[in-house]
Amino acid sequence: MFNINKNILSSNLSPYLKQHKDNPVNWQIWSKETLDFAKISKKPILLSIGYASCHWCHVMAHESFEDNETARIMNNLFVNIKVDREERPDLDFIFQSSFQLFNQSGGGWPLTMFLDENAVPFMGGTYFPKESKNNLPSFKNILQQVSISYKEQRENIIKQKSLIIKNLDLKKNSVLSQDLEPILEMSLSHLDPVMGGYKGAPKFPTYNLYETSLYFYNKTKNKKYFDPVNTVIKQLCSKGIYDHVEGGISRYTVDEEWIVPHFEKMLYDNVQFILLLSKYCKINSEIYFKRKLEQTLEFLKKEFLNKEGFLGSAYDADSEGEEGKYYVYSYEELKNIKNLDKYFDLKPEGNWESKIILIEKELPTKDVLNQLLKIRLKRKKPFFDDKTQLDLNCLWISALISAHSILPNSGYLKLAEEFFLKIEKKYIKNSIYHSYSKDIVFIEDYAFLINALIDLSDKTMNYKYKDLAKKLSIDAIDKFFIKDKNIFQKNPIISNDVFFNPVDIGDNTIPNGNAIMLINLSQLGMLQEAQKLSDSLNGYLNIYKNHMMTSLRALDIFNNIQKKNNCTETGCKVDG
């Protein structure tokens, strides 16, 4: 319900938006009513995008959105809209792209964008402090300066729309095929050969790159594609980014040695970690890596399960107002655990802010882990964002099926089928939608659902899954495929509520939806449709190659299936 003079977030289902329900800011949601009001009142929009487990989102909220004076300025000068990026990834994609256009640098969260009265962006930032510090201007000053600029230059700002759309529109050339491996090799050349990951800090596990590298290793048996995966897996499994006590992996580390994590645990990272580790374990069958795989699977099964029986989205980095408090230890807590220094690096002075982040030397016993868990469970657990996202739950099904190949006696294939039955009942028999609203769905939801169905069909030999995958592929083409561009739009063509039609061809927190659809169409034998998409992705690849690692894999699968070679996402069996 729209009311411009009050904060309306208390009735919203999103855990992130509910975190802001008591702010003195008159927060609105992204809706037709809100956007119409901005247009009629000729008032600029302040758009704030974040998510429930985002540390710097919490910092900005405490500093600014809970401050009465800041809220007064915001309410007087702007229409204020709060968005959960996981609920509306299309908005996040468009406005992150706009931020990068304006600032010529990567974005992040919280994303703070200023839009004109027609909801077209004209300026933006990420985190702004309450008071000026570290070369960042104060948020209150930014608010006042932006408002003055808008009043003085309103007509010129509004006229910028066509130029912004022109610059956001993806460029494409006429290349229809190209050598794919040199593009992968160029990306691999930027990796740290000792620590793994891209050189420098912060360090993110870029799963899409390693999945593609492992795919080309399985196809060619060339060690230059396996070695980077081998290096990074060993780092991820032994260092501080991995939770050795309960399992699961954090989003990234702030250092270049994978020691100090940003402690939030995201579902999208953990399902991709399971997928990569499962495929790695087919090559390296050491028990150490199988234990990490099983521990993470069991962690997600137990700790990410929400009331609906699906997996939720994330655990916060903070608890009791401190980042990492739930996960780190003091030396005093650990010193009496027998032989603990055999399994972990222990120093009285700690390795992060006088605390100890566990760095593994060798696989600990279950008794040691239980003692560590007993200490941890005395603390308050971080906040759990229990939001169901369809695409990620489908990716979980694929992860379970992949893990079944490594741990065939653990019931993961059965669990995958049980999860699909829940998805069939809630979504397929009613309507397919992303999270809360039954009116909002994205190409990624269809892409990963179809992909999970193909995985189920291949593993169970039950062809009802593949038949359904074909039907859903036709639905996806009808809803999302832009015929004059031969590419899938991120949101449905007929219900786009943004100033720009979003086409996403790059990997982000999850593999790209267009690339996954090319894999799907190729494996389903829908080669005429796949050919159009392949031609289009080749045209984009020649320009945006660094962001399209999943597309490399997808294009190679399509090319080989066209040549009648036997291909799966693991690799292609090439004749001769």
Q: Helices and strands in order, then pairings?
A:
Elements: H1 15-18, H2 32-41, E1 45-50, H3 55-65, H4 68-77, E2 79-84, H5 89-103, E3 111-115, E4 121-125, H6 139-159, H7 161-168, H8 181-188, H9 207-220, H10 223-238, E5 252-253, E6 261-262, E7 265-266, H11 267-281, H12 287-303, E8 314-315, E9 318-319, E10 322-323, H13 331-334, H14 340-343, H15 366-376, E11 384-385, H16 390-404, H17 412-428, H18 443-460, H19 464-480, E12 481-482, E13 487-488, H20 513-523, H21 527-544, H22 549-562, E14 566-568, E15 571-573
Parallel strand pairs: 1-2
Antiparallel strand pairs: 1-3, 3-4, 5-6, 7-8, 8-11, 9-10, 12-13, 14-15
Helix pairs in contact: 4-6, 8-9, 9-10, 9-11, 9-22, 11-12, 11-16, 16-17, 16-18, 18-19, 18-20, 20-21, 20-22, 21-22
Protein model, in words:
The longest helix has 21 residues, at 139-159. Helix content is 48%, strand content 8%. It has 2 domains: 9-168, Glutaredoxin; 181-318 and 385-573, Glycosyltransferase, CATH 1.50.10.10. The chain has helices at 15-18, 32-41, 55-65, 68-77, 89-103, 139-159, 161-168, 181-188, 207-220, 223-238, 267-281, 287-303, 331-334, 340-343, 366-376, 390-404, 412-428, 443-460, 464-480, 513-523, 527-544, 549-562; strands at 45-50, 79-84, 111-115, 121-125, 252-253, 261-262, 265-266, 314-315, 318-319, 322-323, 384-385, 481-482, 487-488, 566-568, 571-573. It contains 22 helices and 15 strands. The strands form 6 sheets. A 4-stranded mixed beta sheet has the order 2-1-3-4, with helices on both faces. Strands 7-8-11 form a 3-stranded antiparallel beta sheet. The chain starts with 14 loop residues before the first helix and ends with a strand. The radius of gyration is 24 Å and the shape is globular. α9 packs parallel to α11 and α18 runs parallel beside α20 (513-523). The relative contact order is 0.09. It is an alpha+beta fold and 576 residues long.
